Amino acid sequence: MPLLYSKQLNPHTRLGIWELAEPAEELRAALPAHVAVEAGLEQVHPKRQREWLASRALAYRLLQEFSAHPLQLLRNQHGKPYFPDAGLQVSISHSPKLAAVILSDKYEVGIDIELISAKALRVQDKFLTDAEKSHTLADEQNTCLYWSAKETLYKLYSRKQLIFKDNLEVKPAPDPNLLLGRVKTENFSKLYRINFELLQSHVLTYCIDDSAA
């Protein structure tokens, strides 16, 4: 099974990347026996089926580092994945070629992976402010990176609908492979550190909210 890598980010948090190389049947077989496949999965495009199955296979692979119990990965009312009664935080992302999962037994987490393409440039006015454009400079990779960073913030917050251009801010950080991101709503404002990597023509962004540690 093409697990590209799994790494410990801190004593409580682990990240994994999976390359989608197997057919759907092999990915189903990689799931634990107790796992229920999402209703309606058979009706979606085969490519999307493989992305869903690979991301879940990876999530359960990482779960082995935290628990031996037969947990079921569900989604809450906001669509955020979670393991009921496990005290674990999980975030999932996938593209047609890669799946990414981050799992923590202490911190809230968010993750996103995006194939670098011109699509983000075409819609940048919908999610970037003028200040953010002064950093991305209409560069394809930078624009995808800021889009991915905002996706990660969206998943990390995961408590209400957010408007990417109005409620999420991203800017450079002084450290390499790091961005600063802020979630701001009428009653909430918080700054986060967003890590990023480039791999296989993708940008990967992830955030660990350890500010209360």
TrEMBL record:
Q: Which reaction does it catalyse?
A: apo-[peptidyl-carrier protein] + CoA = holo-[peptidyl-carrier protein] + adenosine 3',5'-bisphosphate + H(+); apo-[aryl-carrier protein] + CoA = holo-[aryl-carrier protein] + adenosine 3',5'-bisphosphate + H(+)
- Give the cofactors, semicolon-separated: Mg(2+)
Residues binding CoA, per UniProt = R48, R56, S93, H94, D112, E151, K155
Membrane-spanning intervals of the chain: none
Highest taxon of source: Bacteria
Indicate what this protein is called per its UniProt record: Enterobactin synthase component D
Q: Which residues bind Mg(2+)?
A: D112, I113, E114
Ranges for domain 4'-phosphopantetheinyl transferase N-terminal come to 40-103
Family annotation (InterPro entries): 4-PPantetheinyl_Trfase_dom (IPR008278), 4-PPantetheinyl_Trfase_dom_sf (IPR037143), 4PPT_N (IPR041354), Enbac_synth_compD-like (IPR003542)
Question: How does the record describe its quaternary structure?
Answer: EntB, EntD, EntE, and EntF form a multienzyme complex called enterobactin synthase.
Any idea which UniProt keywords this protein has? Enterobactin biosynthesis, Magnesium, Metal-binding, Transferase
Pathway field: Siderophore biosynthesis; enterobactin biosynthesis
Gene Ontology MF terms: holo-[acyl-carrier-protein] synthase activity; magnesium ion binding
Query: Pfam families annotated for this entry?
Result: 4PPT_N (PF17837), ACPS (PF01648)
Q: Name one GO biological process term.
A: enterobactin biosynthetic process
Ranges for domain 4'-phosphopantetheinyl transferase:
109-207
This chain's function reads: Involved in the biosynthesis of the siderophore enterobactin (enterochelin), which is a macrocyclic trimeric lactone of N-(2,3-dihydroxybenzoyl)-serine. The serine trilactone serves as a scaffolding for the three catechol functionalities that provide hexadentate coordination for the tightly ligated iron(2+) atoms.
Protein family per UniProt:
Belongs to the P-Pant transferase superfamily. EntD family.
Example of a GO cellular component annotation carried by this entry: enterobactin synthetase complex
